[in-house]
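Standup notes
- DV: blocked on the single-chain target, sequence here:
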Amino acid sequence: MGDKEIILTQDGLKKLEEELENLKSVKRREVAERIKIAIGYGDISENSEYEDAKNEQAFIEGRVITLEKMLRNARIINNDEIVTDSVSIGSVVTVEDLEFGDTMEYAIVGSAESDPLRNKISNESPVGKAILGKKKGTVVDVSVPAGIIQYKIVDIKK
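- DV (later): unblocked, structure below
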């Protein structure tokens, strides 16, 4: 089984590359310095500074590996691939909650970029799955823990 393809927008790619660069150039140096200082305190067997720094170093290295793997398996969605006649990754979709009449705007992104607090939802999320491939004017049922929400797709743009 190969690695899962990571779908990214141009913006998402840039963010991951910046994070990777920061971890490799800044964070690695900072944590190495912390380890050096902690070793200077003497006995490392009871040295919580040393333990913390080593744990952070392990986290940083793990994240570097994860990011490198994501970037290796990335498929970038270009702006001209994003269509507006149906919902796709990269679309910005306005939906109306038919029960309450609220409208929300979501950007549909790959799971690596999803950020619900910024209304970036994954194509694998319940709402994302329900609206993917659908056209403007379509009503979809979204299964959520509380039951079923009906959304009408009001608008689709890039």
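- Follow-up: DSSP finds three helices and seven strands in the chain.
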